[in-house]
Amino acid sequence: MEILHKPHDGFFRTFFGRTRELGELLQQILPAELFRQLDPGSLKVEPDSYLDEKGREYFSDIAGSATIAGQKHKIYILVEHKSWPNKWVHLQMYHYIYRIWKQELKEQKSSVLCPVLPILFYHGPTRRIDPSLRSLFPPSLSAEIRGRQPELDLIIYNLSLPETIPGSCSATVAAALYSLKYARDNLTALLRVLNRLAREGGTAFLLSPDFKQIQTYIFSASSLTEQEIHQQIYTEVTNPVLQEEFMSTAQLIMQRGRQEGMREKAREDARRMLDKGFSIQDIVDITGLSEQEIKDLQEPHNQTQIHA
């Protein structure tokens, strides 16, 4: 359900948060010489949550690790996903790296720091992103002062730029990347690409669970209306299996969206009734919500009343 409510983050984490897909993504993102320094087969997905001294939990989008070729040392890989500009992403990544180091030093009793590769995966509005943390400092600083500030050079994969998706990746990873690139505001371009991938990947690709997940993301992320989506599918999709798959998925997503919209309206009506002193049973009878749902709404409502 996370893909429906937070389509970009939910899809990115669930699709590329798996070892095989993460490995293929890294092969596309990292410079070839750097990728060759990772031991083949050693990549694994790591827990993505970190605790600070006060026990607060922070989550990166994807965390992984691999051993460095010819060494016993491992390297951490942090991939942060952004679908919209965030000026302070360097600080966010720096915080994650600090937590990794703290955890590693505590658990391993090590006297050396584990290297970390910080990667920013971006597919928001087209813009230039400076990889350097020092770019956030005032430009008027002298070289002597600037050179003594912390540095962090992000590896940036800016999907919003043209020609960022090479032809060497698998059909499912290519479909995922093109979907992240186009689903929000260029469904026509996306459907044309998927037509090509359908020809190359065949029925096995079209009926795979991975492609079903991609379809769910596409229609959850699109800014088009249901009628516009149906029209685009009929106009642009020539593969009959692909057209049928798209239509059934689009209808399912739209139906879920309508149902969720109706339930949210019922919850809003219930909140108003609580304000007016309606009994829980009356609210259940009028809205169709369960008694437990009303009680769940009632608790934060009572807290608001107490602090008002």
From TrEMBL:
Which residues does the UniProt record annotate as the domain Transposase (putative) YhgA-like?
Answer: 6-127
Q: Which domain of life is it from?
A: Bacteria
Please give one Gene Ontology molecular function term for this protein.
double-stranded DNA endonuclease activity
One GO biological process this protein is involved in is: DNA recombination
Q: Which InterPro entries match?
A: Rpn/YhgA-like_nuclease (IPR051699), Transposase_31 (IPR006842)
> Matching PANTHER family, A to Z?
INACTIVE RECOMBINATION-PROMOTING NUCLEASE-LIKE PROTEIN RPNE-RELATED, PTHR34611
Q: What is this protein called?
A: Transposase (putative) YhgA-like domain-containing protein
